[in-house]
Amino acid sequence: MPIGGGGLISGIAIAAAAVSPGIAVYGVEVEASCPFTKGLAAGRIVEIEVGPTLADGLAGNLDPDTVTFDIVRDRVRRIVVVDEARLREAIVGVVSRERQIVEGAGATAVAGVLAGLLPLRDRRVAVVLSGANIDLAKLKDIL
Predict the structure, then answer these.
(1) Are 102 and 95 in contact (CB under 8 A)?
(2) Which of 19-28, 51-60, 111-120, 130-139 has the lowest mean pLDDT?
(3) Domain ranges of the chain
(4) Residue 11, helix vs strand vs coil
């Protein structure tokens, strides 16, 4: 799952565990904005410096009062981080192989899979593509 503020991944992790208690949910953040990775390492929500990213829908700091931090800490197996080059490759891959338009934020989980950062061998896997809101000029440049 792509992970920004944690709302989508929290809801899916709760629902998935209700259906299949042994399910593993993984999150993928971008290097330019990884508040969960840094916050979980610190044991609390921390403010991060946010850089430019194709995954602008995921960019930003966590709200200090968010309930998602604890849900992600307790229910998401692991979070990995991808760089912009991997994200670009994922967008191109989704467009060329799946014939789907996907924004940077939506392609983040695909980038994590393609980079081999997740333990997925011999498992059934679902990847959430969470948006297609990408500027046409930006998409043209990426492709």
Answers:
(1) yes
(2) 130-139
(3) 7-142
(4) helix
pLDDT value for 18: 97
Residue 42 CB coordination number (10 Å): 9
Place of tokens 């998409």: 139
Side-chain half-sphere of 64: how many Cα atoms within 13 Å? Answer: 1
Other CB atoms within 10 A of residue 28 CB:
31
Residues 85 and 107: their CA atoms lie apart, in Å, by 12
Q: Is the dihedral of CA 63, 109, 81, 30 positive or negative?
A: negative
pLDDT tens by residue, 64-122: 999 999 999 999 999 999 999 999 999 999 999 999 999 999 999 999 999 999 989 89
DSSP code string of 85-118? HHHHHHHHHIIIII-----HHHHHHHHHHHTT-S
Please name the CATH architecture into which domain 7-142 falls: 3-Layer(aba) Sandwich (3.40)
Q: Are 101 and 132 in contact (CB under 8 A)?
A: yes
Residues 51, 114 contacting (CB under 8 angstroms): no
